[in-house]
Amino acid sequence: MADYQHIAHGFEPVFDERSRVLVLGSFPSVLSRQNAFYYGNPRNRFWRVISSLTGEPVPKTRDVASKRALLVRHGIALWDVIESCDVRGSSDASIRNVTPADVGRITSAARIGAVICNGSTAGGLYHRWLEGELGLVATVLPSTSPANASWSLARLTERWGEVLVPLIEKTGEAHD
């Protein structure tokens, strides 16, 4: 197994002033860090879930501009709970020595009304490091990671849709 490395996040959050929902992961995987954008592992189901729920095509793996535009169009901000940490490879279980992200960068520019954590690790880290600062209780949804093999794409999409679709619809109404 790889040794621990102290790694900084490496790329910016996605948001604009119209963002109303903040989706937080834990920390970028090795492939995401290599691709310099969120959910860069083609086996991660995040982009397929979001595309299905928004009725938009799945962006190509390395098409960062399309991924950003998809999120912004639907009022979704995206970042991770951790700004830097010690980690072995992509293992969330190995994360230690956490420096939390400065989510104030997002909340000072956008009226975030809901927080969704992508998986229990992100949820636990959010509760520990950021919930008190934001004052919003997060909804923790099943991880879209390929490591979460017990959840099929259909099941993930259904569960994420129960929470995210009403929030996206509210955001859309606010833009009308």
TrEMBL record:
One of its GO terms (molecular function) is DNA-deoxyinosine glycosylase activity. Its EC number is 3.2.2.15. CDD domains: UDG-F6_HDG. Pfam families: UDG (PF03167). This is DNA-deoxyinosine glycosylase. Residues 12-164 form the Uracil-DNA glycosylase-like domain. SMART domains: UDG, UreE_C. It comes from Thermophilibacter immobilis. The keyword Cytoplasm does not apply. Keywords: Glycosidase, Hydrolase. InterPro entries: Hypoxan-DNA_Glyclase, Uracil-DNA_glycosylase-like, Uracil-DNA_glycosylase-like_sf.
